[in-house]
Amino acid sequence: MVACRRSKRVFSGIQPTGNLTLGNYLGALKRFVEIQDSGVETIYCLVDLHAITTWQNPAELSDATREAAAGFMASGIDPARSILFNQSQVPAHSELAWIFNCVARMGWLGRMTQFKDKAGKNRENASVGLFAYPALMAADILVYHATHVPVGDDQKQHLELTRDIAIKFNNDFEVDFFPVIEPIIEGTATRVMSLRDGTKKMSKSDPSDMSRINLTDDSNKIAAKIRKAKTDSAPVPESPDGLVGRHEAANLLHIFAALSDQSIETITSEFGGRMFSEFKAVLTELAVDRIGPVTAELNRLMKDPAEIDRILASGAEQATLIAEPIVRQTHDIVGMIGSR
Ligand code: AQP
Q1: What pTM, to 2 d.p., does this model score?
Q2: Cβ atoms of 41 and 181 closer than 8 Å
Q3: Which residues 6+ apart lie within 8 Å of 122 measured at CB?
Q4: Averaged pLDDT in 10-residue chunks for the chain of 340 residues
Q5: For the chain, where are the alpha helices, taking DSSP H only?
Q6: What span, in angstroms and rounded, lies between the C-alpha atoms of 145 and 92?
Q7: Is 118 a catalytic residue?
């Protein structure tokens, strides 16, 4: 029986599909940094293979990958303490993904809400990659025998599928090889919503730039976007109970809570009764204060793309050292002959 590792190892990734948003920052990046700073082993990846499951212009993909890497580092990811790389530089991800494509069932993938949302009505025209996306995501995680995965709330279903794939593989081959991962979905902003529609997730690929705050937005843009953010006519409620059914109001208060590291109860008791115009002014100040330094550092790092490429290549080498032996052992378990 081949045993799986038990010590804590964290893996997560972000698609380089455009500017990183405040949603990516609060739902993922901020947690990534906290976990790194707590001393746990951390592996963070720019998942460019996932990005191409929908059409990406090649030049824009390279720029977005470098910009996302700069965004990670500007947010506090230190390549000396975390492994930081882009997925396509480590072929082990694709190799394990193929095996997982043969473990995962069509029915499991067909139930994924992200596929249904992204494929929309024209499913016949969606790429096969978009359908198989969660099997590649399982490979990203399990190729490192990662045990914990910090993500925003929207990725919960994919992580459940990762658990199902690990369990089925272990059962089918009668091994205890792949760990059954634990999602880390914590904090007050696990689902940051669009500034234009409080029922829709804030997303890099939303056609409206006014729907999101990008990590590259300057203070004027941030101010304009918050000022124009949709709200209702009632004032800030005195307690979180007053936010029921008020999606846009709840979103702005949750953003404030996450940016200031306070609970939603503290925010409603501080601002309860005040008009949203007043609250938005304070939120703008806070957002500019927290995002401004990240933007400045991101812009500084982007001036040296060769250095970003060097960091990603070095991260890929470190990642390969962990992932290759796991793929080799997987091949052995499955019965594939090989000498590497
Ligand atoms: N709005 C959000 N609130 C909280 N967390 C979020 N995340 C994304 N949007 C929000 C988290 O960020 C990580 C990386 O996500 P991704 O880029 O790989 O894919 P996504 O979830 O599909 O993000 P987008 O912005 O919506 O990308 P596009 O528009 O390209 O599809 C994940 O941990 C995610 O939960």
Answers
A1: 0.95
A2: no
A3: none
A4: 72 95 95 97 98 96 98 98 98 98 97 94 94 98 98 95 98 98 92 96 93 96 97 94 95 97 96 96 97 97 98 98 98 90
A5: 22-24, 30-37, 48-51, 58-75, 92-103, 106-110, 113-119, 128-142, 156-172, 219-228, 247-260, 264-271, 276-301, 305-334
A6: 13
A7: yes
* Pocket around ligand 1 at a 6 A CB cut-off: 14-15, 17, 21, 23-24, 27-28, 151-152, 154-155, 190-192, 201-205
Are 233 and 294 in contact by the 8 Å Cβ rule? The answer is no
Whether 221 is catalytic is no
Q: State both tokens at 279.
A: 């609250």
Mapping DSSP to helix (H, G, I), strand (E, B) and coil, where does residue 84 land?
strand
Question: How far apart, in whole angstroms, are the C-alpha atoms of residue 149 and residue 86?
Answer: 17
Contact 23, 152 (CB under 8 A): yes
CA 276 – CA 299 distance, rounded (Å): 32
Q: How far is residue 312's CA from residue 316's CA, in Å, rounded to a whole number?
A: 6
According to the model, what pLDDT value does residue 320 have?
Answer: 98
**At CA 116, angle to CA 230 and CA 32, rounded to 5?**
65
Three-state SS at 110: helix
Query: Which atom of ligand 1 sits closest to the CA of residue 205?
Result: 29
β-sheet bridge partners, residue 10: 42, 148
Q: Which two tokens stand for residue 43?
A: 């592996």
Name the residue with tokens 């409620």. Answer: 237
